[in-house]
Fold this sequence. Notes:
Elements: H1 9-18, E1 28-31, E2 43-47, E3 52-61, E4 63-65, E5 76-81, E6 94-101, E7 119-126, H2 127-136, E8 149-154, E9 159-164, E10 173-176, H3 183-187
Parallel strand pairs: 3-6
Antiparallel strand pairs: 1-2, 2-3, 4-5, 5-8, 6-7, 8-9, 9-10
Amino acid sequence: MEPIFSLPYSEFAVMQELSRYFKKDQGFSAYVPTSRQQKGVDFLIHSQKTNKCARFQVKASQSYPRQVYKNQPYRHSLWFSNFLGKYVDGFCDFYCLFGLYPPGDLSSGQIDANKGVWQPLLLCLTDSEMKEFLQSVKTKKEPKKPDRFFYIVRISLKSATVLAAKRPRSRGQTGRFLGANRPLLAWVG
């Protein structure tokens, strides 16, 4: 008799995407805590060559429709809570911000969000990058007060902009999708 184990889709999708970079035949393995109440770590990636583990935390959001601006063709954004109050320095090595976008998502065309496969968006930040970003999310009225939310807007197929809530035209950070030149690709291997 084998127990049934469930895993949130967001964590499964992130692990599936990471498996493209950390392949089993290259000595990498993924591990999930058996207790879903384990705080701070959603899964680990282990390298048999270096005997190092990287700890990952996944933050997920559904897609929300948004106002479209002329220079931003994507009509959906991902909203995340600013968890700075719950943030613990060094709890994990990488934070993955995950969400799904409707196929196409261009404002010039007609999109039926019920048709087609939704495309994943995955931004991976180191622990220090996440801390720095969360500390920079401030309200517009009181620049020293932390904002409760931030959102991600996809601006092209190869990048995304992370913005503070309620400030779509404010200065934001541009992050890259998971891929080459990300610190995690060199960290474990």
